[in-house]
Amino acid sequence: MKYDVVVIGASAGGLTAAISAKRFYPDKSVLVIKKEQTGMIPCGIPYIFGTFKSVDDDILPAEKFLKPLGVETLVDEVVEIDPKAKIVRTKSGKEIAWEKLVIATGSKPVFPELPGTELEDVYTVPKDYHYLKALRERLESAEKVVIVGGGFIALEVGDEIRKLGKDVTILVRSRLLRNSFDPEFSEMIEGRLKEAGINIVYGQVERLLGSKKVEKVKLVNGKELDADMVIFSIGYRPNVDLAIKAGLKVTRYGIWTDEYMRTSHQDIFAVGDCVEHRDFFTGKPYGLMLASTATFEARIAGANLFKLQIVRENRRTIGVYSTHVAGLTLAAAGLTEEAAKREGFEVIVGYGKGPDRHPAKFSDTSMVTVKLIFSRDRGAILGAQIAGGKSVGEMINILALAIQKRLTASELYTLQIATHPLLTASPVGYQIVKAAEDALAKLRT
């Protein structure tokens, strides 16, 4: 069995890579090998615990997108990549030859090595249908749930479980969302979570206590938290076992790739959570686990499989995030103020605040706060953070493009926009423009 393109993995990265490959090279045969029959929409997983009625509401229908294009799928597990023979071997004993290979094996949740983690009712949040279904069913009889972690998944899962009427505690070592937001935004989300009835506890887990099932979480400071269930959401690690075994170049952050998403083997590409990313401003390697980033990289890989398309390349990665928790939308792109200063940038910060409808009498009006970080030397935008209503989710995409194109405070101040009373802030007080204006005034002092 031989295909022109074989893709390992069928989540956001693998699915997009296969679609792009077929669109750019329609005459090529494409096979997607996926480990599970039923895949999950990664970003929708937190909502299976509250908003959705069941895990089945978050199914990723891969075949729906692939079959009309002529892309074949195989449910099996790849256990070996042979780069010299250009063959993959599967758990069922199949050998499949390829001309080009795309690795999109994703990531797996970190499970800590702590005393007591072997107890029943201790979980993580993987992208595994059957695991999540069992977790969701067990949650029905749990009353006190402790979630360990202060990132996006921890907060979203906690907020969703709260909707079931559970007693939810989020245990975090430092401030919430600290890698993506500055302190004032962390304070906003902490306030909203507390108002919604979620307990926020700062501390570090020493061990879990219980006879057969988990009963308590003991902290390093001696404090104990009652728990019927503990969910660890403390990060994810890239799935790189196949790449290591195949002799590809792998770093602590994932599989190394060039700007066309090629690995150290010119006919093997890699995309998504399993690859190393490089910061847009500093070029430093780091890990980034976002479906949006995976699809961006997959489009580049798919376009460049058989012919390099110079305009379709990945120079560096901008982290762009958004979440909606306890009625508050938070979004960020690029560097935080703290991160920019750590890297040695001299920065100017501009703020813009106001309602996202005009006049602010409409029932769906929310207050929006925009923070923009610029370099003092030429006023180029380095980062952005926004808090407010659901309009924030698209506003951050404007600013991500501004960062990608290295726009200045002056260019954002003269941004030409469309406004409407029912849809946007007033043209007089459009928050992005006001934040740029605030920064410009400071740059001139």
Secondary-structure map:
Elements: E1 2-8, H1 12-24, E2 30-34, E3 39-40, E4 59-60, H2 62-66, E5 72-75, E6 78-82, E7 87-90, E8 95-103, E9 107-109, E10 122-123, H3 129-139, E11 144-148, H4 152-162, E12 167-172, H5 183-195, E13 199-202, E14 205-209, E15 216-219, E16 224-226, E17 229-232, E18 236-238, H6 241-245, E19 250-251, E20 254-255, E21 268-270, E22 277-278, E23 285-286, H7 291-304, E24 320-325, E25 328-334, H8 337-342, E26 347-355, E27 367-375, E28 381-388, H9 392-404, H10 409-413, H11 431-443
**Which regions are unreliable across 5 or more consecutive residues at pLDDT < 50?**
none
Estimate the global geometry from the Cα principal axes: globular
Largest sheet: 7 strands, mixed
Report helical residue fraction: 10-25%
How many strand segments?
A: 28
DSSP helix count? Answer: 11
The chain-level structural class is alpha/beta
Instruction: Tell me, rounded to a whole number, the average pLDDT.
Output: 95
Content of β-strand: 25-35%
Measure the end-to-end span. 69 Å
* Radius of gyration over C-alpha positions, nearest whole angstrom: 23 Å
